[in-house]
Fold:
Amino acid sequence: MTWMNDPTGKELAFSAAARRFPQAEFTIRRLMRMSEDFCDLCGELAEAEHALAQVPRSNRELREEREREWHELIDCLVAEIGEALEEQGGWTPGLGD
Structure:
């Protein structure tokens, strides 16, 4: 992943996760320091959100298919991040999600 090699990329990754789990910001930062895998998940979420925003608007049918694909990936990444946060006690499903 190219973004995660610089401080700006790490901050984008943190922001992507924190938007989804604002009550878990402290835990997100702690896990990003402790776990390269968690950091990568957050970075992949940031990249997927960016890619979704870049889906071409010209061909409606293709656009809808690409948007669906990106939303599915984003949903999977958010679920994985949520599981990691739950394991660390930094987030509870149903409470402020």
